[in-house]
TrEMBL record:
One of its GO terms (cellular component) is cytosol. Belongs to the class-II aminoacyl-tRNA synthetase family. ProS type 1 subfamily. It comes from Salinibacillus kushneri. The lineage of its organism: Bacteria, Bacillati, Bacillota, Bacilli, Bacillales. One of its GO terms (biological process) is prolyl-tRNA aminoacylation. Homodimer. This is Proline--tRNA ligase.
Amino acid sequence: MKQSNLLLPTLKENPTDAEIKSHQLLVRAGYMRQIASGLYSFLPLGNRVLRKVEQIVREEMDEAGATEILMPALQPSELWKESGRWQTYGLELMRIDDRHSREFALGATHEEVITSIIRDEVKSYKKLPLTVYQIQSKFRDEKRPRFGLLRGREFLMKDAYSFHDSFDSLDKTYETIFNAYRNIFTRCGLDFRAVIADSGAMGGKDTHEFMVLSDVGEDVIAYSDTSDYAANIEMAPVITKYEPSNEEAKELQKVETPNQKTMEDVAHYLGHSLDKGLKALMFKVDEQLVLVITRGDHEVNDVKLKNLYDASIVDLASEEETKQAMNAGFGSLGPIGVPENVDIIADYAVQSVVNVSCGANEDGYHYINVNPERDFMVKEYADLRFIQEGDPSPDGKGMIKFARGIEVGHVFKLGKFYSEKMDASYLDQNGKANPFIMGCYGIGVSRTLAAIVEQYHDDHGITWPVQVAPYQVHLLALNMKKDEQKELAEEIYETLKKAGIEVLFDDRKERAGVKFADSDLVGIPLRITVGKRADEGFAELKYRQSGDQQDIYKSDIIDTVR
Ligand code: ATP
Ligand code: MG
Ligand code: MG
Ligand code: MG
């Protein structure tokens, strides 16, 4: 490809809205452009990388015995009503009406559609197990689209679904796909960990996430330094200290809490506790605001394990909400309103959050010298515990360390959830109808691309691993006005193309400095520069990652590049 013909708009400055490297670099290096919040166009180079990641995914999925299909992104609401998710999926599901006022969703995921297809087309156990996948755009109206491709509102996902007549069969496929995922992320050059995704309700072995280790990851992983143990601490929501301004506090007083307690009650706690030297703090736990009453003598700015032993979380949720929160793995935190613009001051990994009922505003109870058993009804006090670095890992084989991770893949044993709700069954050997047992397996293809950039960049730009690079070779002719340079570069270009090597040829009439800077930014693994020694038939090779360079004679290039 000749660069003079390519849409490759590089920028000198980072886009102002880009907070993290992958977002900055993919825009600056001309791989993509934003069209609206969370929506991106892939320009030619971005598209090439996306196709490469996709191809790796495709090859490994095929190898795992899955076959590719393509389902519509537009899905009728009826299917989502059958599964119940039309109600439960919430605001993330993008919904639209057609001209006849029929309701549709833009696919956030495809369990409903695939279940309806298999329900109609697979009748017998003889067809099982069966695994299909697709690579397709998904739509999710994320509350906070951010970090470029890491959290988009339209993004490319590989989603796979498997159907079985026994849990053993599901286990086998799960393991096969699990291994395929290992291969995929290894081939992408990523430093990743497969982690237990929900060690609570799911018992830990029915769902795993693949996490790319990165400081910009939104998940916290607790892993063992010397064994395979690793888990997502989703029980450890991001906790944010939040102190309402006086005005906000007044506003909050008008807000009704879900269990009918008004914020006046909350203010009462607040005022009461502050008067008596206790601290009432508001934390944001995931999307929920939580009131925490602590003893005043603790600096809660760096609440850690021990401090929180002394803190109590006032449970303002109704029992039903508490139950839901518990099921979702949060512990029992009551929502009391969600103000925007909350600053994150610290993240913690919490194993579980204490579940207490507040009694301190009743006569005879008080916050001074607060006594958990007397002043609060404590239901699960001992569970209030942070996992800390250095703790023994649950498998007993190592010590816990923390890392941040980007969730690039997720494998999940669904069981009969969809097949029962949607009445999808097969006939077994005895002619008896049974609901399918299912698994689902996702990979964020566009997110993976960004995760690669998070792990492969330096001060000058992207440093792609060769397997996913847009081109293998970046050929630069430093001065296209010099005949000997132009001719040698063109000769090398033709030779490389003939040998089936993907080469981008910078044939632009730009200054050498511009070409070098752009080349570093774009990050193709190997650069071949034709410059001063062109008349002798020599060019310069430079490896983008290591910076190693050497002069090379034209006829030696092919062997070296291969
Ligand atoms: P997250 O926890 O980051 O919101 P998720 O658990 O909601 O992700 P899944 O439903 O498991 O996502 O979807 C499968 C994969 O799709 C994820 O592992 C992730 O790689 C990718 N993905 C999910 N949401 C997004 C998004 N908004 N932008 C880009 N990729 C996404
Ligand atoms: Mg999500
Ligand atoms: Mg997740
Ligand atoms: Mg997930």
